[in-house]
Amino acid sequence: MHQTQRELEQLYRDRFSDRELAGKQALWQVLCDQVFQELVPRDGTVVDLGAGNCEFINNIGAARRIAVDLNPDAARFADSGVEVLTTSASEMSVLEDGSVDTVFTSNFFEHLPSKDLLLDVLRECHRVTKANGRLVVVMPNVRYLAGRYWDYFDHHLPLTHLSLAEGLNLAGYDVVRMVPRFLPYTVKDARLTVRPWMVSTYLRLKPVWPVLGRQMMLVGVPRQ
User: Fold this and answer.
1) N or C, fewer C-beta in 10 Å, the chain?
2) Rounded-to-integer distance, Cα 65 and Cα 174, Å
3) Angle of helix 115-128 relative to helix 161-170, nearest 10 degrees?
4) Which candidate, 23, 24, 55, 56, places its Cα nearest to that of 40?
């Protein structure tokens, strides 16, 4: 059975310390500035699926920023100017067909209970994505995690870069960029507090990604 909203709230409240949450904020500030902003047009519309604490959507630049999360608490974390949709990622009916430049999601798909629901979400993403838009996915790559993937009680759906690419293809996306080993797994239990300069250094040292990277990044575009 999938966790209840109250159970999920408890999991997330207890999972990260204040130091780790500060590290996540530093991480996302740099990632948005140095990696993801080039995938999000500043004059366009971006949607953040499973926005959580809104680290991505608060730090990305776009004319219209939309956070999608079933948890109503997401509205507490969203900056002013961010629209919050308290709805399922598979039912974004308030968004028109082909109205979004970039759909972004990080560390969300692994929490879905089934591949059937994942396909529903991907097809809904495809519906709202512009013909020249893109879907950007960051998530743990189970190929490089082994048992660590299951350290979190709410992880359900293990995927590799190859199985995720197949799912994107089934939903009507062509994968135009695949980074099997992108970011380290998590800031939780990190020995050092994550600082912006540390993230910038890591991003520049691409030869270390195949050693330390445990999360993948895939970019898909709607098939023409």
Assistant:
1) N
2) 24
3) 60
4) 56
In DSSP terms, 139 is beta-bridged to: 216
pLDDT in tens, 114-170: 999 999 999 999 999 999 999 999 999 999 998 888 887 888 999 999 999 999 999
CATH architecture of the domain with residue range 5-222: 3-Layer(aba) Sandwich (3.40)
Report the range of poorest mean pLDDT among 8-12, 53-57, 116-120, 121-125: 8-12
Could you tell me what percent of the chain has a pLDDT over 70? Answer: 87
Q: For the chain, what is the mean pLDDT?
A: 90
Cβ count near 163 (within 10 Å): 15
Asked if 65 and 83 touch (Cβ cutoff 8 Å), the reply is yes
Q: What is the pTM of this model?
A: 0.89
Q: Is 123 helix (H, G, I), strand (E, B) or coil?
A: helix
CB 137 within 8 Å of CB 159:
no
Contacts by 77-86, CB closer than 8 A, 24 or more apart: 77/51, 77/52, 77/53, 78/51, 78/54, 79/54, 82/54, 82/57, 82/58, 84/51
Domain boundaries, the chain: 5-222
User: What angle separates helix 196-204 from helix 18-31, to the nearest 10 degrees?
Assistant: 50
Direct distance between the N- and C-terminal alpha carbons of the chain, in angstroms, rounded to an integer: 38
Tell me which residue of 125, 117, 220, 113 sits closest to 165, measured CA to CA.
220
